[in-house]
Specification:
Radius of gyration: 19 Å
CATH class: Alpha Beta
Number of helices: 12
CATH superfamily: Metal-dependent hydrolases
Order of helices and strands: EHEEEHEHEHEHEHHEHHEHEHH
Largest sheet: 5 strands, parallel
Strand order of the largest sheet: 7-8-9-10-11
């Protein structure tokens, strides 16, 4: 039984990666202005993201923070701002390869602390499928972090089927992360674009995967929903009821939605004992995995303390800390 913890939701962009991106895909406009202090500024296509935490690029700071939080290992993914689905397929593929190779180098340098996920150009699903295969085969990455939509196209778009087929065949670990969240015209105050918008966009993506029949057609997919699944666990029974009542819900889903919902996986980022206890009770510990969202300010760095406060068997505690994730990672790694 596993005793080492694995944080499956963490982001990284090192300064060397930014330099390569700036040289090879200058039209993407990626900059990282670092300082000697706690924060820098990440810029993508002219849009600044201030207060970018030092641990996002400084690996020694990351290691110290991991030790402080009790995270033995992290599954590294790109920062959400650099998935670049709005760029040309060629630029998207080049940027993906640069970032994937950089994460792979970090994993090879510190294999006892890090595993890695790829990013892929989902705006070109055939290229995305090939890059996922290359990154897993050549770089040894475990799967990919994917956005909650592709520039407004939901994840049930049939054009994405080549990517889902490749991910299923390779047993890829897919971390679904919100990007460019819906409803921004009503979420510009109080930072609710993150408090509400991020879990909302994850929920929309999950509903499309279920009702669009993606999880029905590709039952072997291993998709982990960020931030505790958004509102999905709390509203799943409503989805099942709605499918029984409404013809619209049956247009692409052949059977009832319960089996597809039961294939969804979740991280632990809920910021409290009670909501996480509900998630574990509802989904089962084998579908819930330790996550932090490092290094961002909405990350959860007391996750081990919260897990230790839950009503859990010893086996369930091991599952949350790393056992469930280990079972979902590719078998041939």
């Amino acid at each position: 039984m596993i005793s080492r913890s694995l944080d499956i939701h963490a982001h990284i962009i090192e300064t060397e990666t930014v330099a390569t991106l700036r040289r090879e895909v200058p039209d993407c406009g990626i900059e990282l202005h670092t300082t000697d202090g706690e924060f820098g500024t990440l810029v993508v296509a002219g849009a600044p993201y201030p207060n970018f935490p030092r641990g996002g690029w400084d690996v020694q700071r990351r290691l110290a923070d991991m030790d402080r939080a009790g995270f033995d290992r992290q599954l590294l993914a790109v920062v959400p701002q650099t998935v670049l689905y709005d760029k040309s397929p060629a630029d998207g593929l080049t940027a993906s390869r640069i970032q994937n190779d950089a994460i792979a180098r970090r994993v090879r340098a510190m294999p006892d602390r890090f595993l890695g996920l790829a990013t892929v150009p989902l705006q070109a699903p055939d290229l995305a499928a090939r890059e996922l295969g290359r990154a897993m085969r050549e770089d040894g990455l475990m799967g990919a972090m994917i956005g909650s939509h592709v520039e407004g196209r939901n994840l049930d778009d049939p054009a994405l089927d080549p990517f889902w087929a490749e991910a299923e065949s390779r047993q890829a670990f897919l971390l679904l992360h919100p990007v460019k969240v819906a409803g921004m015209d009503r979420q510009r105050s109080y930072y609710i674009n993150n408090f509400v918008g991020n879990p909302l966009d994850t929920t929309i993506a999950a509903a499309c995967l279920v009702f669009g029949g993606v999880l029905e057609r590709f039952p072997g997919l291993r998709i982990v929903l960020s931030h505790g699944g958004g509102f999905t666990p709390y509203q799943a029974a409503r989805w099942i009821h709605g499918w029984a009542e409404r013809a619209e819900a049956k247009t692409r889903l052949r059977g009832e939605p319960g089996p597809s919902i039961d294939r969804l996986l979740f991280d632990t980022i809920l910021h409290g004992v009670e909501p996480l206890q509900f998630l574990v009770d509802w989904a089962g510990a084998d579908r819930v995995m330790l996550g932090s969202d490092y290094p961002f300010d909405m990350g959860q760095y007391d996750a081990r303390e919260v897990i230790d406060s839950l009503r859990l068997t010893t086996a369930d505690r091991h599952a949350l800390l790393g056992g469930a994730a280990e079972r979902c990672l590719p078998a041939n790694r």
